[in-house]
Each structure stands twice: as C-alpha cells, then as structure tokens.
C-alpha cells in the first residue's frame, strides 16, 4: 500500500508539469504552424526573386538579433527565477542594452547592406526600406522575444504562451492580408506590412508588462560577461546554420537550394517540441542548481529521457507527414519531401545536446556552455561549407549529422566534467579541505 500511495503522489506531482508542457508545447506548435504558413504565403506571392531577397536579408538579421541585447535576457530569467525583487534592475539593464546595441546594428546594416541588396530602384528608398526591415527583424523582434522571457522568469507560462502564439499569428495575419487580400507581391510592399505588424504587437507586449512595474535603469556589470558568453554561441550557431545555404546558392540549382532551405525551416520548427520542455523547466533547474549543478543532476537526467522520447516522436511524425508539404509550399519544390525525410532524424542528437547545455546555462556555467556552442558552431560552419562545396547536396546532409552528433558528445563530456567539479567542491567544503 505504501508503495502504491507513493506512486500516486509522484503522479500527482507530475500533473502540473504535464499540464504546463501541454500548454507550452501547444503554443509552440501553433506558433510553428503559423510561421510555416507565413513562409508559404510569402514564397507563393513574392515570387522566386523577391522571396530569395527576403530570405537573404532575413538570414543576416537572424545572426544580428543575437547580438542585440548582448544575451541579457538569460540573466533576467536566471536571476528573477531565484529572486523576483531584482526584476526592475534587470529590466532596465535589458532595455539599455537592447536600445544601444540595436541602434549600432541598424547604423552598420544601413551603411553596408544597400551595396549588396536592391529592394527599390531609388538609392534613398533602398536604404530606408532595408533599414526598416532590419529594425523589424532585429530590434522589434528582440524586444518581443524579451517579453516572453520575462513571463518565463516569473513562471507565468500562460502569458508566455500567449506571447508566442500572438506573435506568430499576427505575422501570419499580416502576410495573409498583405498578399491575399491587398495583392502585395513585392518585398518593398511586404516590408511596410511586416514593420506595422511587429510594432502593433510590441505595443501590446509593453501593455502586458506594465503591471510588473517600471524599470530601474542601470547596467548590471557582473552580468555583461555572462551575457556575452550566452549570446556569442548563438551568433556563431546562426552563422553555422547559414553557411551551407550560402554555399548551396553558389554550387547548385535554385530549386535544390530553395527546397533545402524550406526543409531546414521545417526541421528547426519541429525542434520546438523539445524547446517547449526546456522553456518550462529552465527556471526550476536554475533554482535547483543555485547551490551547485550536482543538486539538479537527477532532475537533468529525467528531463533528458523525456526530451529523447519527444524528439524521436517528432522525427517520426515529420517523416510520415513529409509528402503533404508540397501542397503547402508548392509542387515546384520537387526535392522538398526527400530533403525533409533525410534531415528529420537530426532532431534526436540536437535535443540530446540541448538538454546538457540548458542545464549548464541554468546553473550559471555560461563559459562552459559557450565554449561548446561557440566551438561547435565555428567548426561546424567550416565543415558545412566545405562539405557543401565538395559534394552538394549529399555532403551538406552528411555534415549536418556529423556536426550535431559531435555537439552531443562534446556537450555531455563538458556537463559531466562540470558536474564532477560541483560534487567535489561540496565534498571539500563539508570536509573542511579547500577545493582544488
């Protein structure tokens, strides 16, 4: 009877997490579906040339957005999850860094990108439109994503889920209205619609955060280094994710490059099933590991098993549903189904290394986390570029798996190394012997 009662208590304890995951996962699935629909609408209505221009500028923006704010959102989630009284200071810290770095990135982008991309015939209009697109995809996106992280820091996952879904749905609504209703078929027309939709949703985010209190504007100096550790790997990861696309555009046909890029978007969206798990458990892992990573090791082990099961299920689902995709994106993407089925299994190693790195981040080991992400991304970018140049597209696909499996091995080796140091440190303190 005692064992039976214990199992019932354990099941009851899991119910809140299961409900939170269902809500979080559902919101991210809706968000992912909306993003794919937006992608499909723009691909159909902008045409090959305009859509390729949109993808190119967006790809560069996706790298820059990780520079905007210098990774300060992570410290807000980590520290507010432990002590909500520090929220006002970290809110001000984030706003200062987002504004300062965002302005700098806009100036650099406005000066450089018009030499490489032509959105409008007039030079002035070209500069203004590209700057507007950069402001949308870097500054406004960073501010909107920051809103979601604030709610996660307070473990208000309902509000975080609404932010995720609302952001995705308003972009889909904007694309549908612009292209289907108003007949927008050029990138310069879409840039205005995109900016308006993002600005409108950001206003709603500001209103949602207002009850939490005003910011206290000051820089938290001790978090600058950790923020850089957190953001730089994501910048390198974004560069790695675009290296194969750049080389493919040089050495293969437009159809193969387009189909591969769409397949990549689908695989990245499918990872949200694991990301939903990480986002609801990160604050709890931060609290559990406050006195050392070893205090959260059992929790990390359980999270890993759940994430592994979810990633396998997601990969199988993507494989089975792949034949439906041409009806959404267009039958001119003749290689799409094949690429998706080749790439879907990469979800498994990606979810494996993500759990180890999320645990390191939650415990405050941003240097170790950054070393794995940064080193893996730097070497991965070189490998992906070389393999794509040498044997496209087969080399591209093989390099994708080699990179992610290597990342898994490296992430867990570093995790166990840090875990051992954490345990040894506590044993030394208890015994009165100085830790090495």
UniProtKB/TrEMBL annotation:
The keyword Cell membrane applies. It comes from the Bacteria. Keywords: Cell membrane, Membrane, Sugar transport, Transmembrane, Transmembrane helix, Transport. The keyword Transmembrane helix applies. The chain crosses the membrane at residues 21-45, 51-73, 94-117, 123-145, 166-184, 190-209, 303-327, 339-360, 372-391, 397-420. It holds the Pfam family Polysacc_synt. It is found in: Cell membrane. It is a multi-pass membrane protein. InterPro entries: Poly_Biosynth_Transport, Polysacc_synth. PANTHER family: O-ANTIGEN TRANSPORTER-RELATED, PST FAMILY PREDICTED COLANIC ACID TRANSPORTER. This is Sugar transporter.
């Amino acid at each position: 009877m005692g064992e039976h009662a214990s199992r019932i208590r354990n099941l009851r304890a899991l119910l809140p997490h299961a409900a939170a995951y269902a809500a979080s996962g559902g919101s991210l699935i809706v968000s992912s579906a909306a993003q794919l629909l937006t992608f499909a609408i723009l691909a159909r209505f902008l045409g090959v040339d305009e859509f390729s221009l949109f993808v190119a500028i967006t790809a560069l923006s996706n790298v820059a957005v990780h520079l905007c704010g210098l990774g300060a959102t992570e410290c807000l989630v980590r520290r507010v999850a432990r002590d909500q009284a520090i929220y006002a200071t970290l809110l001000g810290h984030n706003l200062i860094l987002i504004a300062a770095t965002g302005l700098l990135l806009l100036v650099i982008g406005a000066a450089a990108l018009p030499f490489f991309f032509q959105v409008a015939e007039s030079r002035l209009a070209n500069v203004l439109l590209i700057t507007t697109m950069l402001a949308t995809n870097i500054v406004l996106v960073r501010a909107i994503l920051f809103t979601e992280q604030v709610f996660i820091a307070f473990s208000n996952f309902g509000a975080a889920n609404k932010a995720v879904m609302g952001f995705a749905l308003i972009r889909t609504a904007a694309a549908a209205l612009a292209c289907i209703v108003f007949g927008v078929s050029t990138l310069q027309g879409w840039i205005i619609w995109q900016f308006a939709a993002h600005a409108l949703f950001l206003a709603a985010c500001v209103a949602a955060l207002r009850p939490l209190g005003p910011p206290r504007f000051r820089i938290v100096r001790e978090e600058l280094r950790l923020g850089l550790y957190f953001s730089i790997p994501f910048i390198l990861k974004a560069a790695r994710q675009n290296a194969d696309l750049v080389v493919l555009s040089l050495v293969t046909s437009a159809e193969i490059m387009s189909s591969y890029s769409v397949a990549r978007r689908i695989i990245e969206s499918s990872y949200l099933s694991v990301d939903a798990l990480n986002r609801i458990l990160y604050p709890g892992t931060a609290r559990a590991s406050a006195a050392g990573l070893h205090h959260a090791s059992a929790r990390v082990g359980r999270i890993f098993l759940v994430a592994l099961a979810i990633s396998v299920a997601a990969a199988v689902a993507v494989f089975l549903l792949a034949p439906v995709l041409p009806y959404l994106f267009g039958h001119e993407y003749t290689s799409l189904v094949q690429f998706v089925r080749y790439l879907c299994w990469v979800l498994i190693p990606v979810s494996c290394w993500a759990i180890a790195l999320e645990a390191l981040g939650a415990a405050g080991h941003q240097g170790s986390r950054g070393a794995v992400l940064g080193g893996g991304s730097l070497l991965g970018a070189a490998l992906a570029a070389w393999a794509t140049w040498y044997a496209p597209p087969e080399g591209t696909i093989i390099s994708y798996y080699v990179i992610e499996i290597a990342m898994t091995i490296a992430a867990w080796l570093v995790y166990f190394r840090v875990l051992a140091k954490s345990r040894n440190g506590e044993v030394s303190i208890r015994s009165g012997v100085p830790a090495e």
